[in-house]
Structures are given as C-alpha cells and as structure tokens.
Glutamyl-tRNA(Gln) amidotransferase subunit A (Niallia endozanthoxylica), 455 residues
Amino acid sequence: ITVSDLVDESYKRIQEVDDKVQAFLTLDEERARETAKNLDAKIGTDESKGLLFGMPIGVKDNIVTKDLRTTCASKILENFNPIYNATVVDQLHKADTITIGKINMDEFAMGSSNENSGFQKTYNPWNLEKVPGGSSGGSAAAVAAGEVPFSLGSDTGGSIRQPASFCGVVGLKPTYGRVSRFGLVAFASSLDQIGPITRNVEDNAYLLQAISGLDPMDSTSANVEVPNFVQALTGDVKGLKIAVPKEYLGEGVNEEVRQSVLDALKVLESLGAVWEEVSLPHSKYALAAYYLLSSSEASANLARFDGVRYGYRSPNSETLMDLYKNTRAEGFGDEVKRRIMLGTFALSSGYYDAYYKKAQRVRTLIKKDFEDVFAKYDVIVGPTTPTPAFTIGENISDPLTMYINDILTIPVNLAGVPGISVPCGFSNNGLPLGLQIIGKHFDESTVYRVAHAYE
Ligand code: GLN
C-alpha cells in the first residue's frame, strides 16, 4: 500500500459521504496528492520517515494553514489565506502526515452543535438527524465517517471531547500548555488547546506525540518533558485510584449515560482499579464562570477583525467607524455577536469587579477542587456529556440549554488539566456515548493508559 493509495481512499470516501455529512469546508487535493507522491518516493529507501508517515489528516478550520483558506467557519474570514502555518501544522508536516482539507466548526469555536457555522451544518454520521456536537463537530464527524483516520480539533470548554462523545470517536484535550497555540485563531486564550481526534486511543497517543512540546512562538506553551505516550499504553491499571465526582452522575445526567459510566467502572474494577465517590463542590459555578471569562477573552481577541487587517470588508461605508461597524455586523454570526457583547459588558469599568474578577475567583476555587481530588486519586472518571447527541434544531433557539451541554467538560478547561473522551456504548436509540477520563496536569500518560485499558 502506498501513501497515494491512502490519500485516494480518503478523497473517495469524502466523495461518497460528504454531501451527507458535510464535514469539510475546503479540500486541498492537488497538494495532498503531490505530497503523497513525494512520500511514496521515500518508501523502500533509508530516508528518514516521520512518526505518522503518510497518514491523512483533517484540520479544524481555526488552525491556520499557509496558502490554504482558513475561515473559522465565519463569513468575516471567508476568503482568508494565511501567510504562515500554525506550529502544529509544521509539526504535522515533520511527522509526514497529509493534510486532506479544512474542517467545519461552529463559528470561531463558539457552539456545541456545528449549527453556528457561517457556511454549513455538519451532520452526525450515526444518525443524520442529530448534531455531531461542537465546536469541533466536523473534526469528529470526519473521523467517524471514515473520511480521515486523524483530525485536529480545539477545545476551550469541551469542543473536542463533546463531539468525540457524540460521534463515537476518541478525543483528547491536552493539559493547557502541552500543545502550542501559535496559529490557532484565539477564542479564549487562557482556555484554548488544540488536540487529537482519532478512532482509537493508540492513534490518539501518536498524534499527540507529534504535536506536543515547547514552542518559542507561544509564551504559554510549557517547558516540560514530552513523555512517550504510546509507551504508556500498557493495559495495566492494577491498583489505580479512580475518583467519581457525585456531581457528574447526579441531576441533569441522562439515565442511560449514567448507566454506561457505571458499567465502564465495572470493567475498570475487573482490571484491578478501585473507585470511590468524591465531590467537586464548585463545579456548579463552572458554567457561569466559563461563559463570563471565555466571552470576555473573546471580546478582546475578536477585536482584530475590523475589516482592515483580515478577510471580509463591508463595501458600503462612508467613514472608518462605519467600516468597522458594517464589517462586523455583516461578517459575524449571532452567537459570536452575543459573546462579544457579553464580554465587552463584563469587562467594562464599573462591572469588572462584579463579574470578571469574581469569575476569576471562582476559577481558582474550581482548580483547587481538582487539586484536592488529585492529591488522593490518579484520575477522575465520569460522563463526557449529560445526554447523547441531540436533534438538529432542538436547542438552537435557547442558548442556555445549549450551554448546559458543556457542564461536564468545562471545569477541566478552567482547571487546565487534560481530559479524554472514549466511546462507552450506545443509547437505546443507537447513539454513541462517551466516557470522560480526567488526569493531573501533564499526566496525559495515565489518562491514555486508563482509556486504552478500558477501550
Ligand atoms: N460549547 C462551548 C462554547 O460554546 C465550548 C466551545 C469550545 O470548546 N470551543 O463556548
């Protein structure tokens, strides 16, 4: 089998299913085939080969790719062609992967269903009436539909883990700082992390290996050693101490979801792990703190889209102020505007202490909840989402119901720790469910070990 065969397979599958799934926004076929040919020439020679030699990959459209349209699924960046690569994209090239194309998402990664894309909805491959989750819904759907074996997503409040759970694939949000954010279009800089979405845990560990490490271009990337994640997949969880927060199995969590987690815990128990119930007492404030902080950061980050520097510019403006206003009014979708307004309000003088500062304090308490639990336990286990994938249109008119979907993933971002979603069975109506495994700072190895033993 050649790399060209793999690339063929990927585009063939896209041709077959993507008019239904609609995961891709832009394909990069010509370049992909050319790169494949170059890699094929290395086969059978002793030229060095990258860690993921010849593997097709889809990249979420908020990760910038040189000379390849990068839209963040926003009209405001509809024709934006970056002049440089994100660090992760350079790392992928070094690993010899092949970028198949750019993938749909909620506009600027704000959303939980892909319904906020400025261009198209992505549909859940398991049931086309259901959402794939979001905001990396396209990345999860593309892997679930067999269009690509690997994809990259980004996770600010659950955007890798929730769609992985809805689509029955494996998605990991690394520790904050593990993966460079250089070239990831910022939504909430203190929470955003790029991470891998794959069909199984081993592939996931390989992809994280390829994109991890200190980057001088990102001052928040961490100078910590990158262990060999694949070597951590020993299958051994004997004596492992699992904490199960009671808040993660209580009110608002669907019965089937609860049951699937209890079943997964039995499997882990049979492998020699032990589990106990614990409490993350401040998790009930996580959603409110997250929406305040993430919207505040977003309002600052998205100020750069002014019609002058990037992408779309409104054609009918008399004055500079009108140009800003019209460009932003025409270019941003409703959800993005909602967050910018909320964030601008929360940061305005007179309200700053009451909202932003208070939310920061809550964040500290949430972080401490995790530290307390991790003083005694190796991992935290619970569901990824309170329900399986919901129906398209079901939550779109009610932002609050939509936000509640992320209640179990958001605390992990606020604490900065790593978390994975692995498939753990199906609901009665045949939709995949996800098990969330959360680890200590920079301890993706243990998270992977548990996920792999369970899988
Ligand atoms: N759904 C959450 C939001 O809308 C999380 C998004 C994300 O992780 N990018 O903010």
